[in-house]
Amino acid sequence: MTSRQHAERGDPRQDLVAAGVGYVAFARDNPMLFKLMFGSERPSSDDSDLVQHASGAFATLVNGVRDIRGGDPMADADGLKDIAAAWSIVHGIANLLIAGRMGFLQPLLEHDPETVLADIIVRSLPQQ
Predict the structure, then answer these.
(1) HTH-type transcriptional regulator MT1864/Rv1816-like C-terminal domain: which residues (predicted)?
(2) Alpha-carbon dihedral of residues 108, 110, 116, 121, nearest 10 degrees?
């Protein structure tokens, strides 16, 4: 996720899209770890590495939404909804892809997965 983020630095919307594409790519490349980090059956938060990675992913999301909105998204209801929308779309895509539930997208993903994912993710981002 980090290399994609740094490659796109500059435009807050593009930065958050890049982070989202990285999130989905991580899930596709590491489905078992992704399920462990975010699954409902995950172990308690006693695993500091697991907590650190999950917290880092959430901080990237919150900071990205903050950069788009120009203020702390945790401070008001609309900001919280923007965080939920952005996370839901990438988390949902990630889960559906690793579960094999988005077969209809496979032809598109085979040719240019990053562009396809970016096009989907941008639809959920908050307006500036």
Answers:
(1) 16-104
(2) 120
- Which amino acid type is present at position 7? A
pLDDT value at residue 127: 72
- Residue (of 21, 59, 52) closest to 37 by Cα position: 52
Q: What is the CATH number of domain 2-122?
A: 1.10.357
3-state secondary structure of 90: helix
Q: How confident is the model at residue 53 (pLDDT cuts 50, 70, 90)?
A: confident
CA 11 – CA 15 distance, rounded (Å)? 6
Cβ atoms within 10 Å, residue 54? 16
Q: Tokens 């839901």 appear where?
A: 88
CB neighbours of 118 closer than 8 A, spacing ≥ 6? Answer: 17, 18, 20, 21
